[in-house]
Amino acid sequence: MIELHDVRKVFPARGRSGEVVAVDGVSLRVEAGEFAGVVGPSGSGKSTLVRLVNLLERPTSGSVTVDGQVLSDLPDDRVREARRSMGMVFQHFELLDSRTAAGNVEHPLELAGVGRAERRRRAAELLDLVDLGERAGAHPAQLSGGQKQRVAIARALAGRPKVLLCDEATSALDQASTTGVLDLLRRVRAELGLTVLLITHEMAVVKAVCDSAVLLDRGRVVDGGRLAEVLTREHSPLADALLPAPAADAGAGHGGALVRVTVTDRAPETVVLQTLVGELGLAVEVAGGSVETVAGGRYGRLLLRVTGDLGRLDGAVHRLRDDGVLVEQVHAGVAAGAGR
């Protein structure tokens, strides 16, 4: 549905000679119906990237394809037409203060030449969808931040887009409003069959709603993929950002060996502990870490302190790896190496 191939965006440097490379050779693919995230620190190129997807910024080089159409090859008038298949949700809502909630939702339809009766019907339908039917006559100043973003989402859906682009859509909201907006985005994606590309710097947002993600740094993709695969991959910067591994010093100073394991639905912590304790007779204590719900599954990174007959530990590590568990020995009584 969305495909960027070797996209580069260069801006002239402000106030001096030279140039600024905002996006540097990015390639990514988002399948139809997928909820994908683009995550990274401030200045990593995230917001420029989303503006390249709908060609609010034209790439300096590379290609942008949406729904089978190479947008980067189209003239401006064709781009404006193609852009109607994409809705956009912004960090600061961008609502018109002079218009009611219904009037804001109607606005893009009015610009598209849709008749008044159809505009009103569509706005009422969408405000009901976002649970704001009773606030149709309210102006933005009368709405909370979460309600404003719901109106903005309804407006983005007015033209029946296939793709919804969200640029830091929850960054201006409190935690309760963030949860509500993410639940809404997940629901409208499912009900309307949308493809969603979400730009954020918040890892909690990615964990809550995304099927896949890419991690940007200085305009480049440094890691990415389906979250279910990323979280069980060795040496993954994105996995480290989503579920930081417990530091080895969390279990230091108490003797024994320290082993870091990644647990999943397929290899939950109960199975790992049963293997180490019940089958291999080792004494095991959880020294740190957590287990969370990510992309609809349970994933976690645990730091285990193993005592007892450490001569068995090397075999235990290999046994866990053979069972598909990502395991690393970080402080050893015997050398067991690292990796899977």
Helix-strand pattern: EEEHEEHEHHHEHEHEEHHEHEEHE
Shape: elongated
- Name the poorly predicted regions: 334-340
- Count of separate structural domains: 2
Tally of separate helices = 11
CATH topology of the largest domain: Rossmann fold
Fold and architecture overview:
The chain is of the alpha/beta class. It folds into two domains: 2-238, P-loop containing nucleotide triphosphate hydrolases (Rossmann fold), CATH 3.40.50; 243-331, Alpha-Beta Plaits (2-Layer Sandwich). The chain is built from eleven helices and 14 strands. The chain has helices at 46-53, 76-82, 101-111, 116-129, 145-156, 175-192, 203-209, 227-230, 237-242, 269-279, 313-322, and strands spanning 2-12, 19-30, 35-39, 61-66, 69-70, 86-89, 163-167, 195-200, 212-217, 220-226, 257-263, 283-294, 297-307, 326-331. The radius of gyration is 24 Å and the shape is elongated. The two termini are 34 Å apart.
What is the secondary structure topology, with strand pairs?
Layout: E1 2-12, E2 19-30, E3 35-39, H1 46-53, E4 61-66, E5 69-70, H2 76-82, E6 86-89, H3 101-111, H4 116-129, H5 145-156, E7 163-167, H6 175-192, E8 195-200, H7 203-209, E9 212-217, E10 220-226, H8 227-230, H9 237-242, E11 257-263, H10 269-279, E12 283-294, E13 297-307, H11 313-322, E14 326-331
Parallel strand pairs: 3-8, 3-9, 6-7, 7-8
Antiparallel strand pairs: 1-2, 1-4, 4-5, 9-10, 11-13, 11-14, 12-13
Helix pairs in contact: 3-4, 3-5, 4-5, 5-6
Short description:
The protein is of the alpha/beta class and 340 residues long. 32% of the residues lie in helices and 29% in strands. The chain has helices at 46-53, 76-82, 101-111, 116-129, 145-156, 175-192, 203-209, 227-230, 237-242, 269-279, 313-322, and strands at residues 2-12, 19-30, 35-39, 61-66, 69-70, 86-89, 163-167, 195-200, 212-217, 220-226, 257-263, 283-294, 297-307, 326-331.
